[in-house]
Amino acid sequence: MAATKKSKAGGRKYGEKAQSSVQREMHEFKRGKLKSGRSGKKVTSRKQAIAIGLSEARKAGAKVPAKKTST
Known about the structure:
By secondary structure, this protein is mainly α. It has helices spanning about 15-30, 45-60.
């Protein structure tokens, strides 16, 4: 009896637009050019760069899951 993987009905979790947005932000981050929102400080964390990319994709209407909220 082989275990089968069940796929979700929705397909991909993130859309192509989200992928390109994160890719662009990572490109800037690696070159030290990526700055955060209001403060304008240089981004030092890889995770932070990815979060900025996903946030921009969300604003642009790309297929991105909603942010996780703490309760």
